[in-house]
Structure of Fructose-specific phosphotransferase system IIA component:
Amino acid sequence: MKISKLLEKNLINLDLNTSDKEETLREMVNLLKIGDKIQVQNKFLAKIIEREKEGSTGFGREIAVPHGKSETVNELSLAIGRSKPGIEYHSLDGKKVKLIFMVADYPDYSPKYLKLVSTLVSWLREDDFRKSLLEAEGKTEFIELFKEKERSTE
């Protein structure tokens, strides 16, 4: 799966100005709405919050991968946020989250959805890749890092 094919500049906010988990999730869902990836913000936000109640998607290393499926989603989508100071997210390691990758899909079984989430988590566990994303100067560089990563794993 080519994650770079899902990356759109209008779905990336490298200067998140949120302080807590719910505000951040709301902002990420808003990116999906603006990008015409979802139809009804509140419906998808409710799915994301419901999923978070099962267990935090902040898996450590300053990363969170909130994900959900809803009939309001138009297509498999990825919204990305970055916060330099970090966000209180109730992560598994107790650290603030600086990179958020929100995955949205429709309710049917989708192997691409599972592959996207697992690939993201795998790549983001790599210190060098994660550090590069945290230091990227802009959206173009951020997307290029994903393209380089894909080329190196082919």
